[in-house]
Design brief:
This protein is mostly helical. It folds into two domains: about 50 residues, Arc Repressor Mutant, subunit A (Orthogonal Bundle), CATH 1.10.10.60; about 130 residues, Orthogonal Bundle (Tetracycline Repressor, domain 2). It is about 70% helix and about 0% strand. The protein has eleven helices and no strands. Helix 8 crosses helix 9. The longest helix is centred in the first third of the chain and has 23 residues. The protein is elongated and about 65 Å long. About 25% of the residues are buried.
Amino acid sequence: MTEKIDRRKAKTKQALRDALVALIREKAIESITVSDLTRKADINRGTFYLHYRDVLDLRDHIKAEVQEGLLRIVAHLEPKDMFNQASEGKVYDGLIRVYEYFDSQADFFEVMLGQNGDLSFSSLMKETIHTHMYRKLIAAQPQNDMLVPADILIGYVASAHFGFILEWIRSGRKQTPAELAKYMSDIMYHGPLRALGFLPPKTQ
């Protein structure tokens, strides 16, 4: 019986998530009402209020769930493994999993980062990448080996990485997560100037 209730609850939450995404495509989130959501999701208002206080509470729960999902993946990343594999022309599986996750959440990212969404979501995702992904790499690197201060480097790389993902989503996700991971591996290992062709490729 508990399993049946949990499935029903998950189905309701998914319907509300899908309804919110669809409505944000049409108008600003501040203009969306609970009635709009329940009509779109085909549930009654009482059911909505069993789970959420209002539309913004629903949005905040989804944002938190998306961040938690990303954190679960990032927690298992080993950035040095990514660079070691890139040096051998390989793609790190953990990086592919990161892009697979963004792919699975792309509809929410697209609307939340669009003109009708919530721009604070961009800062949340960028900070997640900044704090939990690249600080691992910097922490393992001797500070006196760095050409620039660690905080500046982390900020640059995290912003560039999130911009990379954002452009992929906004341009219709034409590349697969594996292809995207290969591009990022090449950029990170060879550097932007080599990726652009201004410098000769690194020798293995």
